[in-house]
Amino acid sequence: MSVKIRNIDLGDFPLLLAPMEDVSDPPFRALCKRHGADLMFTEFISSEGLIRDAAKSVQKLDIYEYERPIGIQIFGSEIESMKQTTEIVEKTNPDIIDINYGCPVKKVACKGAGAGILQDIPKMVSMTSEIVKSTKLPVTVKTRLGWDDKTKYVVEVAERLQDIGIEAISIHGRTRQQMYKGDADWSLIAEVKNNPRMRIPVFGNGDISTPEKALEYKNKYGVDGIMIGRASIGHPWIFNEIKHFMKTGQHLAPPTLKDRVAAAREHLEMSVKWKGIGLGIVEMRRHYSNYFKGIPHFKDARSILVTSHNLDELRQTLDNIELQFADSFPA
Fold this sequence. Notes:
There is one protein chain. By secondary structure, the protein is an alpha/beta fold. It has two domains: about 240 residues, TIM Barrel (Alpha-Beta Barrel); about 70 residues. It is globular and about 60 Å long.
């Protein structure tokens, strides 16, 4: 049965690209979409930044037709600012407005935004209610199990947020205190899904790094779909790899060296075009290690990719990789 967020049909078991700061920008989303992502979200956008018209926040509103369905994710700690932000975001015509109640980073959470709001559930409910009321678009939420081990209230929280009008929830299987350490606990995500009062789609997030794990967690926890974050960095192929494995029980052939170079090169060119040369080059650096994971004796090439500020040198290095490592890496 198809999973739907209002009238947005996401197919039988959708795979979502998680919103990741400085990662899930338009260049990266273009590659993930091509390789099978069913629903994607922007990097999170600061409500205060957007209201002040900060360039970085405004630029994150860039969305493109080929990305649809696409959600714009917002975060903030003030209800009034979040309402204003919702109205600004709605004008850019995304398919979904997603609220970030999960970011564990200190500068966000300690100001009461992101996962910080998990310390004040009544405020979380009030804020969500006001956002739902101020837009015609579907509103969804991304959150965590709780603030710490003593406050894992996600089953109750999900029900309360559904009752005030959210239309899907994505849950990362860790507390804020855990950050990204330890194993994600999906048992509470399953409890949310199996709550007989829940009617909206429930998506699980955390530690899905292989097609086998995706299938295991689908079967074991019964979620409506899976959100993939860190495992997609430098490896946008993961979405189709999971889909193929779920359908056939077989692995897709891994991307060849030629595929990897082509994706990294295209990613770099799009990044530079969208962000400008300086930032475009720097923000690509986190992707290279994963694009070229497993290549022996790659240290020198990697060093150039992650330190050079010269676009022509980077292009040349990428071109050389295919020639230099053709024999040492599976075709």
